[in-house]
């Protein structure tokens, strides 16, 4: 069983930056694709970004391209989401997810999920 714990959310003004992180335990981190998703109040959860096992394969939602960067440090079993130029519409609970057996970035099919971290962007 894989456990995922997010941290690093918070409240910022529009234009600011945050860098949530997610630490994995209970599995072989380097064998997983990792992803970030978000869910705003009253909306469905949506894909944000993903990264393959080596870090060379990444994928982003159109709404965050050029502003967000996903990265991972396999030796620390940690995945990061650098969020720059934040907008009020980025306000949501951000979830980390793991997809065992996928070597490349993936937009769906994730098996393990964290509890989420709140990101609030004020105008």
Description:
- It contains no helices and eleven strands.
- The protein is mostly beta strands and 123 residues long.
- The chain has strands at residues 3-7, 10-13, 21-25, 32-39, 46-51, 58-60, 68-73, 78-83, 92-100, 112-113, 117-122.
- It is globular and about 40 Å long.
- The N and C termini lie far apart (40 Å).
Number of helices: 0
Number of E-type strands = 11
SSE string, helix = H, strand = E? Answer: EEEEEEEEEEE
Spatial shape: globular
Work out the radius of gyration: 13 Å
Class of secondary structure makeup: mainly beta
- End-to-end C-alpha gap: 40 Å
Q: Fraction of residues in helices?
A: under 10%
Low-confidence stretches: none
In terms of DSSP E residues, the strand content is over 45%
Largest sheet, strands/sense/barrel: 7 strands, mixed
Output mean pLDDT: 96
Concise account of the structure shown:
With 123 residues, this protein is an all-beta fold.
Keywords:
single chain; 123 residues; mainly beta; 7-stranded mixed sheet; 4-stranded antiparallel sheet; globular
Helix and strand arrangement:
Blueprint: E1 3-7, E2 10-13, E3 21-25, E4 32-39, E5 46-51, E6 58-60, E7 68-73, E8 78-83, E9 92-100, E10 112-113, E11 117-122
